[in-house]
Amino acid sequence: MKEQFLVKHAVGGRAFIDTGKQPVDYAWKQVQDEWVFTVRIEKERIAELLKWINELNVFIFQELENEPTRKIWFYVGDDAVQYSEEQGELTIVAVSQIAYVPDQFSAQL
Fold first, then answer.
1. Residue 34 counted as domain residue
2. pLDDT one-digit tens code per residue, 42-98
3. Phi, psi at residue 34, to the nearest 5°?
4. Does any domain span residue 41?
5. Cα dist. 96→14, 30, 87 in Å?
6. Is 102 within a domain?
7. Each residue's pLDDT tens digit, 25-34
8. For residues 60 and 28, is the Cβ–Cβ distance under 8 A?
9. Count of domains forming the chain
10. pTM for this one?
């Protein structure tokens, strides 16, 4: 499975992190009712992101062979983004998510 990780300003805004364009080391896991994303990245690469920490959304696009892309949209709550300069690590906690396959949505809503 191929996976793309995005961190965006709001829903339709600009992407601050997009592994489809520039790789970064990241991991994510579900912890009870939340999803925790850990990103190893230099502060210089995310200086603009840190200005908008209360307006972020996270997306994971999962590409499986012979299947349409599955997209997962994670909603990031207030005060859910932390950056440790010492560790060079960004932590994002999402409080909800919606998984969908765009090909399965009808053009008529």
1. yes
2. 999 999 999 999 999 999 999 988 888 999 999 998 889 999 999 999 999 999 999
3. -130, 165
4. yes
5. 21, 11, 27
6. no
7. 999 999 999 9
8. yes
9. 1
10. 0.88
Q: Please tell me the distance from the alpha carbon of residue 66 to that of residue 68, in angstroms, as a whole number.
A: 7
Residue 100 in domain: no
Beta strands (DSSP E) in the chain are 2-9, 15-18, 25-31, 34-40, 56-63, 70-84, 89-100
CB 35 within 8 A of CB 74: yes
CA atoms within 13 A on the CB side of 5: 15
Q: How far apart, in whole angstroms, are the C-alpha atoms of residue 104 and residue 28?
A: 26
Contact 28, 40 (CB under 8 A): no
- Find the radius of gyration of the CA atoms of the chain: 14
Residue 11: band (very low, low, confident or very high) from pLDDT cuts 50, 70, 90: low
Assign residue 42 the CATH number of its domain: 2.40.30
Length, in residues, of the chain = 109
Q: Give 103's pLDDT tier (boundaries 50, 70, 90).
A: confident
- Structural domain that includes position 50: 2-95
